[in-house]
Amino acid sequence: MTRPTLYGADYSVYVRIARMALEEKGVGYDLVPVDVFAADGVPAWYLAHHPFGRIPAFEHEGFRLFETGAITRYVDEAFDGPALQPADVRGRGIMNQIVGMLDAYGYRAMVWDVAVERLEKTEPDEQLIAAGLRQAETVLEVLSALKKVGPWLLGDQLTLADLHAAPIVAYFIKVAEGRDLLARYSEIRDWYARIAARPSFARTEK
To answer: Judging by DSSP bridges, how do beta strands 57-60 and 30-33 pair with one another?
Structure first.
């Protein structure tokens, strides 16, 4: 089986999610750099891989995918290695709910509205940061409520939910407000410390 190709930038949260899935499965892959924030814009050739010009995109033996959730599920099911999705339908339902929640409510608030705004703006929008923190608080409350007993979000099995959450939280806690908020949710704080210690996390850190 040939090595898959992942297209994207190493700074991207969503590229890192896909990379962590490949690392956890023990799959060798090639990362082709695509900078969607380049001065010249998205390269024209890349639109054949992702018609909306976002990252990541993925290719394996001529089969192409875009959207991180589709990529990580394919990686889990197409390659040998530890299963990254629960075998039971309800477990998969909770996993997909967590992934969907993070996409819809967590990523924008935690990464862009809080971390990027604080780190990269000369004059941060404090109202935007405050709103992002309120949303982030709800996300962490829900994660705490959904977390099962055990080391990972769904209990004893590391799943795509963990791999989806980790890079988002990692970016969020680049700023003091994020670290302070995470510290209030001890189970999620301890979960993050465990996943941050995994080789897949270290090997995908920019």
So the answer is: unpaired
